[in-house]
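Q: Give me the 3D complex with magnesium ion.
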Amino acid sequence: MSDFKLVFLGASTVGKTTLFQRYTKGFISQTQTSIGASFGVRKLTMPDGNECTLGFWDTAGMERFKAISRNYYRGADATLIMWDVTEPASFNTAVEWCEEVHNNHPEILICIVGNKIDCLTGTEPTKPNERKLVAATKGMLFRVSAFTGDGIDDMFSQIAHQLIENKDKVAEAPAAPTVDVKAQKEGGGCGC
Ligand SMILES: Nc1nc2c(ncn2[C@@H]2O[C@H](COP(=O)(O)OP(=O)(O)OP(=O)(O)O)[C@@H](O)[C@H]2O)c(=O)[nH]1
Ligand SMILES: [Mg+2]
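A: Here is the predicted complex, encoded as structure tokens.
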């Protein structure tokens, strides 16, 4: 069984805690602005019967907590960078998080999650260009509703599938050659 650590990031009120609650607890309740971080777990059975455990950190989106939230994504397998599809400004924050994680930790899988699709009317004046994030996210761009549950199960299946594939690739990579420092020293000289 594989264990993965995922971290929610994104501006305040985009719906991180709501999605976190729905997926790890199975219900949603009235949320308040997060001030710290919460942890939750969900087990997932893949179509091939394999199981994996997804451990989630829900972080606080307010600007003043950014430095704290930053501590949580270090060492994560994936970040779920959320934005609110009705709030273009929250997309800019998502782009900033995406650039930061991608530049500092290219090994972390970045997923961009547009939330609140239940609120879309089709008459929104601006439509953020998610496609510009395709390369940094390896195509992990999603649109969901934490309220209705739309798109959520499918999203986490795709993310888990990608994480397992990444892990298998690392496991298959040839091991780096080992150097016997002691033997070289005993042999004298510089070993060349
Ligand atoms: N319509 C709609 N409202 C949502 C959805 N997800 C969250 N909300 C509402 O958006 C508001 C903010 O949600 P939170 O989950 O607290 O947002 P957050 O990202 O955790 O905010 P911070 O903790 O401040 O970072 C709440 O009133 C939620 O009920 C959704 O999918 N659709
Ligand atoms: Mg919250």
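A quick observation: The longest strand covers residues 2-10.
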